[in-house]
Amino acid sequence: MTSYAGEYRRSLDDPAAFWGDAARSVNWIRRPKQILDDTNPPLYRWYPGARLNTCYNALDRHIIAGRAEQAALIYDSPVTGTKRTYSYAELLDLVARFAGGLEACGVGKGDTVLIYMPMVPEAVVAMLACARIGAVHSVVFGGFAPAELAVRIDDARPKVVVAASCGLEPTRVVEYKPLLDEALRRAEHEPETVVVLQRPQAVAELGPKDVEWRTIMTPNAVPPAGCVTVEATDPLYILYTSGTTGRPKGIVRDNGGHAVALGWSMQNIFGIGPGDVMFTASDVGWVVGHSYIVYAPLLAGATTVLYEGKPVGTPDAGAFWRVVEEHKVNVVFTAPTAFRAIRRADPSAELLEGRDISSLRTLFLAGERLDPDTWAWASSTLGVPVVDNWWQTETGWPICANPVGLEPLPLKAGSPTVPVPGYDVQVLDPSGQPLGPAEEGAICIRLPLPPGTLPTLWQDDERFVASYLSAFPGWYLSGDGGFKDEDGYVFVMGRTDDVINVAGHRLSTGSMEAVLAGHPAVAECAVIGVHDELKGQQPRGFVVLKAGVETPVAQLETELVTLVRTEIGAVASLRRVDVVAALPKTRSGKILRRTMREIADGVPFTVPSTIEDASVLDALTPTLRS
Ligand code: COA
Ligand code: AMP
């Protein structure tokens, strides 16, 4: 029997042999002869010269193998009262037709397509259609507002944008089309066509460049597209994620490494094979959605549940149990916040009573730190292993996890268990030396990163190297801090930069600061992430006003909250901005955000000896603690 320890060792001792074996799970058009190109460090490429089509691997080959009638995708939408199952054959038909439609709009191999859609099957169809014709998709999460969308449009320069007329939040309809129109007004780049999926809850007005989804999908309107051959190293998608500055980073995912790594992860981490049912409650706009709603379940020949709703309130905290029972779900994957929300609404899980969830084998949680309390509650409530796993948009699949498909290891509360094969995870001190057990430092991964992880940032190798590979030469800097214990279990304690995690959503305090600083009354500002019982973290803003501003403080505070909501989006969740007299700084002018956060969280805090004026911090302390 293969053991975790043996596989882990093998993956680090001989990565080429390990990932050469794993590559057998993929149907290649030209098999990989070379596994790893390490001639250009610190940039590495997997499977150079090999060719494939990701959509073929996700759909066509399963139909050829006899799975045409098996459910590929189950759309379950409590917010619209819709449930619909798509077999592999039906999904392929839709994807091939939409791919033909994209081709008719002039989209070809290497062109980019931006997708701005909620959790509807058409979002999955659009993504796979891009993969089919070798176009590069970039999905933007629906909770982002025009300014964020415009930045992504200008960076990805899409030939076509695919959008829905609206998304449905429990208490309101979010009209996407006016947000997109505003983003296009702000962006410099102009896409040639906008494809609009009209939803009855808010039908959008169409402009001269807009084409309706249903026009493209009219039977026989365009010929369905076949699979275009791409290089393993060609990009499959770009997914923007928050960095420490206001400018998001375009994470690139390639085709070959991605297909191999996701396939490997389904078998060895998630323990999912053909015919199994996976319910990932996230959003197609996040990496968890890309990997474990869309690509991995389909690459594995499994069934994916696409759930348009919330863990609570659509209609209640029993929604997930209903989905598991009705669709015989084997694996649930979501963020800890979802379970905190369920627990808060239904602490003794009364809504679970009478539900048959016996199909459920494992619950996976990721996206933010899993606090031991939530872990214990989820474990005892569901009676199945609850597996914390740690990763990032950059890696695309887990860095640390309990590899239950390979060998279930003992669980430890507060730890996402051990490094996954392929990842040499070490905790480094500031000089780049690996630290010993229980010593906290920067969590880094020795290069090369395994297949499926980012080869670079979109058209910006320089920024890739500067952001991730320069702090410690030969290592990838994760941006998270933490430690390993004496058994090699990794404990991830939180970001060491200005990225915060709100309800499993990764946000940049830098971009919120940029918005606040843009208000004419603001002289300077700081945004910090403070602890929140439900969402893990919650942003809070502090602003110092320019001299002579006469607007009442309360009015300004409301204006600033609204500004962040309209510029970045509701997802920023910035609900409180305080006008303060001054911000604490070091003598070189750096705002002491970390000390501010520690005071707000009520944990022991350190005041750097380089503080410019300690009385500023004293004056701010009551506001921070309130
Ligand atoms: N489109 C438009 N608006 C959106 C949106 C979307 N796709 N997703 C969220 N929003 C809005 C929400 O409506 C909310 O608006 P409001 O300020 O008017 O209430 C705001 O953005 C904040 O959303 P969220 O942080 O999700 O808070 P919430 O109170 O609506 O829900 C939870 C809280 C815990 C139920 C919810 O965050 C959740 O289900 N989390 C699961 C974690 C998850 O999916 N993480 C993704 C990565 S794995
Ligand atoms: P994202 O790129 O949106 O997936 O966010 C990645 C970040 O979320 C990581 O850098 C961590 O800070 C945090 N994160 C994700 N999963 C975990 C986890 N299991 N434990 C602790 N933090 C996590």
Automatic annotation (TrEMBL):
PROSITE patterns: AMP_BINDING (PS00455)
Cytoplasm listed as a keyword: no
Record-stated family: Belongs to the ATP-dependent AMP-binding enzyme family.
UniProt-listed PANTHER family: ACYL-COA SYNTHETASE, ACYL-COA SYNTHETASE SHORT-CHAIN FAMILY MEMBER 3, MITOCHONDRIAL
Pfam family, one: AMP-binding_C
Stretches assigned to the AMP-dependent synthetase/ligase domain: 66-448
Lineage of origin: Bacteria, Bacillati, Actinomycetota, Actinomycetes, Kineosporiales
Organism: Kineosporia succinea
MF terms in GO: propionate-CoA ligase activity
Catalytic EC class: ligase
Domain Acetyl-coenzyme A synthetase N-terminal, first and last residues per copy: 4-58
Protein name as catalogued: Propionyl-CoA synthetase
InterPro entries per the UniProt record, alphabetical: ACAS_N, AMP-bd_C, AMP-bd_C_sf, AMP-binding_CS, AMP-dep_synth/lig_dom, ANL_N_sf
Keywords of this entry: Ligase
Domain AMP-binding enzyme C-terminal residue range list: 512-590
Entry EC number(s): 6.2.1.17
